[in-house]
Amino acid sequence: MKYLSEFRDGELASRLAREIHQATTRPWRIMEVCGGQTHSIIRNGIDQLLPEGVEMIHGPGCPVCVTPLEVIDRALAIAAQPGVIFCSFGDMLRVPGSVKDLFQVKSEGGDVRIVYSPLDAVKLAIKNPDKQVVFFGVGFETTAPANAMSVHLAKMQGLKNFSMLVSHVLVPPAIEAIMQSENNRVQAFLAAGHVCSVMGYWQYPAVAEKYRVPIVVTGFEPLDIMEGLRRTILQLEKGESRVENAYERVVTFEGNREAQRLLGEVFEVCDRAWRGIGVIPASGWRLSAAYRDFDAELRFAVTGIHAVESPLCHSGEVLRGALKPNECPAFGKQCTPRRPLGATMVSSEGACAAYYNYGRFISVEELTHA
Amino acid sequence: MPEETMSEDTKIDFSNWTCPLPLQDYPTIVMGHGGGGKLSSELVEHLFLPAFRNETLAGLGDAAVIQPPAGRLALSTDTFVVQPLFFPGGTIGDLAVNGTVNDLAVSGARPLYLTAGFVLEEGFPITDLARIVQRMGASARAAGVQIVTGDTKVVERGHGDGCYINTAGVGVIPDHVNIGPSLVRPEDVILVSGTIADHGMAIMSVREGLEFDSAILSDCAPLNELAALVLEAGSQHVHAMRDPTRGGLGATLHEIAGAAKVGIVVEETQLPVRPAVHAACELLGLDPMFVANEGKLAAFVAPEAADAVLAAMRSHKLGAEAQIIGRVVAEHPRMLVAHTRIGSNRVIPEQIGEQLPRIC
């Protein structure tokens, strides 16, 4: 299968768009949970192919966006220490903490490195026995298995110079928090396909039933997303609230059992603060007691670092779909992609950054006539 | 050309260098190589002169003395700090020559002379320097330019990345050529001479910590012949040329849109991207539009000359995969819009800094 062409086929996309238009009789508000899906929607202009009134709400599923300010500040403090090699996924380097970001720490002499896999950080630890190697383990259930595996390997090899700054977040509690929030406007969810490839979707039927909300497991290519939307809208129009899998080539109901077993061993569920949203109970993972020795927050004694988010920022409301980015008083004034105040302006997929970058000069209607 | 690069690299046999003995006293650069004394002059005599071989340089004056040619002079400078110094499809030496040659060529100039300044780190292997310098000489000859003066400084170990190179270049612009970013106007057709993002992905595939197996080669090449063909085929209908390097084609299009106060529409399906480069970009979460090139030419041409310029590009080996990739519009000034493959439009925002690999 050619993933780079077949799932981006223009003709099939217009056919799906036609079916979506035919099926839609009313306005609907659908949230894609995952930042990867937001990226694909924006990159491919999928929202423009939807009927007027079908609104995509970009959810809190971007790990860059939701990692709390406090954790970023702790990362910066660790990375600035001499003798530390601080490893991170690339896009975390530009995320602003209270006063600076990892790029700035690097320019001031911190040894900050971009890696593609936490396993590379373990290799660095083996290669540099006189340094402390720290990996910034953020992300949803998708990135968690590789992070768990790296801590597991470090423990098996008895590595004393490897640790992880963990800020993992979980999708199902976030979906529940959104459904329980005041002024919730979300009527259906596209569930994140890659999260489900690890975790399966056995957790979702109860959520769909409890909140009477359709949940469709959806992939990331343009046709995947449009098919997910088509199925979601069909359910909404019929008044149904089921869990469907529109990403069968990757996702099974059970998910990856072996990965889940390892995750259960290395991590334990904890309350977790989400940038812009606040603490969601039982919405994150931290290292379990058996792996606590590898917890960078304890090793580097940074648990005393606390941070307060800007009171001007309304990103929590934006993430819940209660406020449009340009309705925020700080939008484009105190808060821009260069100087973001909150989660949704930080990453290029964040709802506010997307509004700023894509909607600043011109409306979509003008664009389509260009 | 990549094949040539590889074969010349492997051909370098230090023991067969013109006069290896004095240089082999020190297998690595020492502070004295930048001190202006005997060690410095040995480096010039046994390494730079044979590699760059031309009469002006051989005069070894404090300045190169050249006869000014007719026409307007174009002057450009660029500094090269690429890591690693040797990468699939090229070396820092190829980049240092081609980079400045290309800046002159896309300004409409015929590149003539280059200068070369080296900042070497104490401990840098002389064999590596020999490889780099030999590639500079070969690239200069391939581009038809002469390296006529130079300078070498040595910094202490730990104060440099092995080797930095600055080149400056002079070229001459024929009287009838008048091009520039501000001359781009609505309805102009945008052509690109070949596949984008090759250089950036070739570098990324060998950068420490990010290595991945691939057959991607840098596209590093001199564009002066191609640029001359474009100007000849399009004459006064060619409004601007650029060589999209750092920041990729996307940054170049943003610059032009800003300079000419026009909008630009890009046909996403027409962008030439090698399958391996496309796949690597997808894996790393990068947009090929914003990945570096080192041997591609973008031309902005009035519609009546577009076909002729396309044919001219395709007649040259460096332009065989040339494509018309978009057009200039009066609407949405300073803004880039892509027609996507699924039939929608999207705005292509300007990048704030370097593109970063994404988590998800």
How would you summarize the topology of this molecule?
The complex is a heterodimer of chains A (370) and B (360).
Chain A: H1 10-23, E1 28-34, H2 35-43, E2 54-61, H3 63-66, H4 69-79, E3 84-88, H5 102-107, E4 111-114, H6 118-127, E5 132-139, H7 144-156, E6 162-169, H8 171-180, E7 188-192, H9 193-199, H10 204-211, E8 215-218, H11 222-238, E9 243-245, H12 257-266, E10 267-274, E11 278-287, H13 296-299, H14 315-319, H15 343-346, H16 351-359, H17 364-368
Parallel strand pairs in A: 1-2, 1-7, 3-4, 3-5, 5-6, 7-8, 8-9
Antiparallel strand pairs in A: 6-11, 10-11
Chain B: H1 2-11, H2 20-24, H3 38-52, H4 55-58, E1 72-80, E2 86-87, E3 90-91, H5 92-105, E4 110-121, H6 126-143, E5 146-155, E6 163-173, E7 189-192, H7 198-206, H8 224-234, E8 238-242, H9 248-260, E9 263-267, H10 275-284, E10 298-301, H11 306-314, E11 323-329, E12 336-339, E13 345-347
Parallel strand pairs in B: 4-5, 9-12
Antiparallel strand pairs in B: 1-6, 2-3, 4-6, 7-10, 7-11, 8-10, 9-11, 12-13
Helix pairs in contact in B: 3-6, 5-6, 5-8, 8-11
